[in-house]
């Protein structure tokens, strides 16, 4: 293949090929694909090429000192194309030729690659969610059975533990093979399925305080670790705090408490000093889309409390609400965790 054939090959390629003189930093060649792919005119190509070569002096100095890893460099970035930002991969290699040291490069459009990766991540997320929800339900039910049937015979207890172990194994497999993060970062550690109750309360309280709310936190006689879906429980508490802020009087204290439940298990409560819930609305407060009389003029969809109860349900627990004797109301989460 002679030089003419090689030039024809580069000119016809869908990738953008280019070459620069390392001594002068001058662009020697850019294939016509730059105009086809990016819509650039000749003057735009020269201006953009200057940016491609900005790190050339430092790269040459380090290469001359023996850093062989800089002979070929590959990076992903975005270039301004005719239809907006275009994701590309730029690969360049230092090559010694008859005319001296040259920097030879290729720019590849990686839009299709990124779209495929995004679709793969979305699919993995959907499959992971569809499996994780029923597994969380099973896990919550088993924890509840273990707590409420402590006097069961040894064979029954063994079956409970066998089911719980199987659930843990399936969750581990989801994290290992179907987690979107796993696809993006092979070798990462499994997602934690435990949370420190006291830390959890402080995290949600801090976020509420950033909105100007007055929040007190109290955690007594609770385990150091709680087995659950940490993001789910965090979201549940954030929903309850959000409601307390929106429907309570400005500056009123909101109290969040974690403690051992008198009937066994663990409970979290969020109490505020806002107006009580009308008696005829108490039974509907967690219904999907329901908004009580206090919601008039307050933005919302009526899905927050419904979602919060759904999260607690899959953990095998309960979420209830009651009006306080003097003023305000108290939301109580109960989870079947041995304390």
Automatic annotation (TrEMBL):
What keywords would UniProt list here?
ATP-binding, Kinase, Membrane, Nucleotide-binding, Phosphoprotein, Transferase, Transmembrane, Transmembrane helix, Two-component regulatory system
Catalytic activity reported: ATP + protein L-histidine = ADP + protein N-phospho-L-histidine
Please indicate which superkingdom the organism of origin belongs to.
Answer: Bacteria
Where is this chain's protein located in or outside the cell?
A: Membrane
GO CC term (a single one) = membrane
The UniProt entry's GO biological process terms, in alphabetical order, are: osmosensory signaling via phosphorelay pathway
The signal peptide stretch is none
Q: What is this protein called?
A: histidine kinase
